[in-house]
Amino acid sequence: MKTLVILTGAGMSAESGISTFRDSGGLWEKFRIEDVATPEAWARNPALVQEFYNVRRRQLVHAKPNNGHVSLVELEKNFDVQIITQNVDNLHERAGSTNVLHLHGELMKMRSAGPGQEVFDVQPEKIEYTIHDKCPKGYPLRPHIVWFGEEVPEISNASKLVEKADILVIIGTSMQVYPAAGLLHYARPGIPLYLIDPNEVEISPGRAIMIRKGASEGVEILKKELLKKI
Ligand code: APR
Predict the structure, then answer these.
(1) pTM of the predicted model, to two decimals?
(2) Is 92 assigned a catalytic role?
(3) pLDDT in tens, 110-161
(4) CATH code, domain with 123
(5) Are residues 223 and 164 in the same domain?
(6) Which residue's C-alpha comes closest to atom 10 of ligand 1?
(7) Is 181 in the pocket of ligand 1 (CB under 6 A)?
(8) pLDDT tens column, 65-113
(9) Per-residue b/e over 50-89, b at no fewer than 16 CB within 10 Å?
(10) One of 104, 132, 144, 185 is an active-site residue; which one?
């Protein structure tokens, strides 16, 4: 089976009603990154940071995987599908994808802000956190999110997956955030590279086969293309 590596971003979940970051009306028009998504923001105003992620968790529990997520699961019949997502939602998993690596953390997990950095699942009956929520050792619980300025612990595992790819697909990411955007450089030269996005996206190297559609329609087109070539 060929290894199909899929790099997804916020556009993957747009049709599930979850806002992207940099489109018009996106999250970073409504909030300043430095107020809600940096270690300094957490140090300065943890209540605001908790509330920002509480709102996002509330949205997520009401959202459903879209047809794009579902079609990626169907590709597992014919390919070894490895998803690398920048998304902090759990819609790939809820659709049924087997291999999902989260580069930027997960909304449905919290982490101890203490030295052990233990990670805890968010339980459906408690999706909202305040500055008073503590881990069993008494340290504050912070969102399990990779903030701007923090290391991306999964980047090395992600680059190894991209090195193994026989086919690489990029879906719904503006490719503006590093190190995620640099993952393309790990792809073996000459492998097919597809890019699904309704808008223009600049990538380097710039030789992708463009499918200029939203995620649902785009993955359906991709699926037909790939199955023709098996
Ligand atoms: N289907 C597919 N793609 C879409 C759709 C859709 N229905 N709607 C919008 N898009 C595309 C946009 O054209 C854009 O290229 O999704 C992309 C979203 O880009 P960003 O908002 O920049 O999101 P992303 O690339 O995932 O951001 C990367 O930045 O803020 C951080 O940590 C956050 O993981 C995030 C990272």
Answers:
(1) 0.97
(2) no
(3) 999 999 999 999 999 999 999 999 999 999 999 999 999 999 999 999 999 9
(4) 3.30.1600.10
(5) yes
(6) 11
(7) no
(8) 999 999 999 999 999 999 999 999 999 999 999 999 999 999 999 999 9
(9) bebbbebbeebeebebbbbbbbbbebeeebbbbbbbbbbb
(10) 104
